[in-house]
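Protein entry
_____________
===
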Amino acid sequence: MALELRQQLRLNQQLIMTPQLQLAIKLLQLSRLELMATIRKELEENPALEEVTEAEGEAGTEDGALGGQEAPLEFSPGEPPTPTEPVPAAGERSEPDWSAFLEDFSTPPSRTAVETEEREAPKYEAFVSRKETLNEHLLWQFLMTKPSPEDEAIASFLIGNLNRDGYLEVSLEEAAAANGVPVEEVERVLRVLQTFDPVGVCARDLRECLLIQARYLGFEDTLVTDIIRDHLPHLERKNYKAICKALRADPEEVAAAVNVIKGMEPRPGRPYSDEAPQYITPDIYVYKMDDDFVIVLNDDGLPRLRVNSLYKRTVGRGRRVGSEAESYIHQKMRSAAWLIKSIHQRQKTIYRVMESILRFQREFFEKGIAHLKPMVLRDVAQDIGMHESTISRVTTNKYVHTPQGIFELKYFFNSSIQREEGGAIASASVMEKIRRIIAAEDPRHPHSDDRIAQLLRQENIRIARRTVAKYREMMRLLPSSKRKVL
C-alpha cells in the first residue's frame, strides 16, 4: 500500500463571530456603569470617535456620527440611525482644507468666554473634605489627653490594628512585644481607648463591646450585663426561657433587658466606614399615563458620540496621506461606526424586551407583586423573535423603575407554582404572600413553616413546608423559634 499526499476541496458552512457581532454581544451584556466605562475607554483610544457637546447637540452641527448626522445615544422606538453619507472611498481623495483647520484651532478664546468661565467657577467654600477615618478620630481623642511618647506609640499601634468594625485584632502580648513594654502598660492604654467615641470601640470581641456600652449607659452590675456576660449564646438563639431560668428573673425583666441590648451597636466603627454606598441607576423608566404605560430609556450620563469630521475629510480629499496612515484612519473610523451602531442596537433591544415584559406582566405594573405571573426567557424570546441567550444577556444587570419600585429585569422571570384547583402562580408572588403572613402574625405566637403552608393552601396555593423554609431563607426571615418575643 503506497502513501501519497493529496489535495481535496471541500465546502462546509459554519458560524463565525465577526468583530461587529462580538462587539454587539459584549455591549449587550454590560451594565450601565460598565457601558459608560467602555465608552470612555474607546474615546481615549480611538481618535476618530468624539463626544458631542451639549451646545453642539442643541445647535445641530453639520458633522455627525456615522458620516453626516449626529448620532446621540438617544432612542425612539423604531430602527436605529443609519448612515446618510457614506465614508468617501480612497480613490476620491482631494486636498484637505488645512487652512480652515488651523484657523479653527488657532484662534484664541474670546474675552467673553474667559470671563464666563471665571464667573462660573465653583466656590471653594462649597467643597467637602474627605470623611474622617476611625483611626484619625481615635488618635485625635488620645492626643487631647496629652500622653507621653511611650503611651502615644502604644496607642498608635493599637489603633492601627483595628478592623473596620472597630475591633482590636491583635493580642495584648503581641502589642507589648512590638513596643517593648510590659503587658500592664498596654492594658492601661487600651482601657483609655475604650472610653473614647464611638462607644464600644477597641473591644476584643462582641461580649466586651456590649459590656462597654452597657457600662456607658449606666447598666453596670444589672440584668443587662448578666445576660451579656453569661448568656450571650442564649440571647443569639432567642432562648429567653433558659435565660429566665438561669437568672431566676421574670420574663418582663428579661424582655426589658433584651430591648436595651438590641439598641446597642455591635459594630461601633461602622459610622466611620469609607465604603461609599452604590446607588442603582435604572436603565429604563416605566411611567403610567392615564390608562397606558410609557417606556423611556435612561440616557442621562451616556456620552453622545459621532465620527470625527476631520478624519472623514482627510480620507475623502487628502492626497498626502500615506497608505499606512490611510489604513489606520479607515480602521479607527470603522471601529467608531461599529461602536455607535452597536450602542443603538443595544438600546433598541432593551426597549423591545421591556415592551414584551410589559405585555406579559401588565397586572404587576398596575396592582403590585402579588399579581406577578409565571414567565420564562422563552416567552419573551418567542414574542420578539430573538434567541433566549440574547434575552438573558439583555436582562442581566439591567434595572427598571416602575410604579411598584426598582427591579432587575431578571426579577420578572420566575418559576410557576401550581394551584390546588388548577392554574399557576409566580414564585415571587408566593414569596410576597409568605412575607405578608409573617408580618401580620402575633409575635408571641409566630407561625411555623408548616402552618404557613396550611395558610397558603387555604388560598389555593399548593406548596410544601420545605419550600416555605427555602423561600423564607431567601428573604432572610428568621424561623419561628427566633421570631418569638416575650
